[in-house]
């Protein structure tokens, strides 16, 4: 009888863990892809501020953007999500930049990234 109770507890624990991992991978998989920035606070992006995020399934990626001199450059990063529905970009090779964190949401095929410190700063993206 004792073994049967232990078996039920083990099965319940396995089910709870599997539901949690499926939920995380579902949201992560939605973030995978090439995301083209289309607006900032609902306004069109200026040519110099245009950028693209490229997120891969192995949680690496790179951002394409213009640098201060007008050159099209690539910044590599590692990315991950948190329980707060945020995405963090860890700019491993981007000249010592600190990790950047944004709240993310989806609406009608668009990805919205909102600054965690100031919700007045938000960008919208569409997948290419």
Outline of the structure:
The chain is of the alpha+beta class and 128 residues long. It has one helix at 2-31; strands spanning 33-40, 43-44, 51-55, 60-66, 72-81, 86-90, 100-107, 110-115, 122-127.
Tell me the number of strands. Answer: 9
Low-confidence stretches: 9-24
- Tell the overall outline: globular
Mean pLDDT across residues: 83
- Major sheet, described briefly? 8 strands, antiparallel, barrel
Name its key features.
128 residues, alpha+beta, 1 helix, 9 strands
What does this structure look like?
The chain has 128 residues and is α+β, with helices and mostly antiparallel strands. Helix content is 23%, strand content 45%. It is built from one helix and nine strands. The chain has one helix spanning 2-31; strands at residues 33-40, 43-44, 51-55, 60-66, 72-81, 86-90, 100-107, 110-115, 122-127. Strands 1-3-4-5-6-7-8-9 form an eight-stranded antiparallel barrel. Strand 3 and strand 4 form a beta hairpin. The radius of gyration is 19 Å and the shape is globular.
Layout of SSEs?
Layout: H1 2-31, E1 33-40, E2 43-44, E3 51-55, E4 60-66, E5 72-81, E6 86-90, E7 100-107, E8 110-115, E9 122-127
Antiparallel strand pairs: 1-2, 1-3, 1-9, 3-4, 4-5, 5-6, 6-7, 7-8, 8-9
């Amino acid at each position: 009888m004792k073994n049967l109770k232990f078996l039920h507890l083990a099965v319940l624990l396995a089910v709870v863990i599997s539901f949690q991992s499926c939920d995380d991978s579902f949201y992560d998989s939605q973030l995978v892809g090439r995301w083209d920035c289309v607006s900032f606070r609902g306004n069109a992006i200026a040519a110099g501020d245009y950028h693209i995020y490229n997120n891969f399934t192995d949680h690496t990626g790179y951002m394409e953007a213009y640098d201060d001199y007008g050159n099209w450059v690539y910044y590599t990063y590692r990315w991950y999500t948190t329980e707060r529905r945020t995405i963090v970009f860890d700019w491993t090779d981007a000249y010592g930049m600190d990790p950047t964190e944004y709240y993310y949401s989806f609406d009608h095929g668009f990805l919205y990234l909102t600054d965690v410190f100031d919700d007045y700063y938000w960008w919208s993206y569409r997948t290419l």
